[in-house]
Design goal:
This is S-protein homolog. This protein is α+β, with helices and mostly antiparallel strands and 117 residues long. The chain contains 2 helices and 8 strands, in the order αββββββαββ. Strands 4-1-7-8 form a 4-stranded mixed β-sheet, with no helix packed on it. Strands 3-2-5-6 form a 4-stranded antiparallel β-sheet. The structure holds 2-acetamido-2-deoxy-beta-D-glucopyranose. 2-acetamido-2-deoxy-beta-D-glucopyranose (NAG) binds next to loops.
Length: 117
């Protein structure tokens, strides 16, 4: 192995370790229906690459998913929630820039009558 190959090998190894540590950073985000009175909540979450589809949450139930933040730190999931008179309230359920510290591995959104918490 000449010096170039050795340097290259080392760089690949360092990159691999770096990507690996970022990619294994699993985050769990969930949305919980706390509307009460047996009200259903419709949740539709997606990211640039994943459409999680529309989910109906009965009163008290919770919907969540796991993902790894990408190595570029640009992971963003957004949701539209609908219940009763509220049609398609839009919010970011996970934004790496905002949440990497706040919810390192767990992000729970609770939707109650007064709004989301
Ligand atoms: C809520 O959703 C469940 C399951 O989809 C359904 O059986 C029920 O009738 C719904 N309740 C209301 C209040 O719409």
């Amino acid at each position: 192995m000449n010096i170039f190959n050795r340097t290259f090998g080392l760089m690949v190894l360092i990159l691999f370790v770096f990507f690996d540590s970022v990619a294994s950073d699993n985050v769990h985000v969930s949305v919980k229906n706390k509307l009460g009175d047996g009200k259903n909540l419709t949740v539709h979450c997606q990211s640039k690459d994943n459409d999680l589809g529309e989910q109906t949450l009965t009163d008290g139930s919770e919907y969540g998913w796991d993902f790894s933040v990408n190595a570029w730190g640009s992971t963003l999931f957004y949701c539209d929630i609908t219940w009763e008179t509220v049609n398609r309230y839009h919010f970011d359920s996970y934004s790496y820039d905002r949440d990497w510290k706040r919810c390192e591995s767990q992000c729970l959104w609770t939707v109650s009558g007064e709004g989301k918490r």
